[in-house]
Design a protein that fits this description.
The protein is an all-beta fold. It has strands spanning about 1-10, 15-25, 35, 40-45, 50-60, 70-80. About 0% of the residues lie in helices and about 65% in strands.
């Protein structure tokens, strides 16, 4: 199951958005259940250019129990 969102907002007269997704997968065979979340805060610099940060958390990555990933990342997005 995947939940995705995109919530635009204005802060200091600048356009921002809070967006991302949350994905959960049940266990199957020898694979453990796992989930991944990746929320982002983006500043709309121009019509097609966004800058921001995101946080990635993946619990039991690719179904391997105890193998977790956690990372803060910079985002540069260009929409064509």
């Amino acid at each position: 199951m995947t939940i995705a969102w995109n919530y635009p907002f204005i802060f200091w007269n600048k356009n921002f958005s809070f967006e991302g997704f949350y994905d959960i997968t049940g266990s199957e065979g020898t694979s453990a259940s796992h989930y991944q979340a990746q929320p982002q805060i983006l500043w709309k610099v121009h019509d097609k250019l966004y800058l921001g940060v995101e946080y990635l958390y993946w619990h039991n990555k690719t179904g391997r129990a105890g193998f977790n990933e956690s990372a803060m990342q910079a985002v540069v997005r260009i929409n064509f």
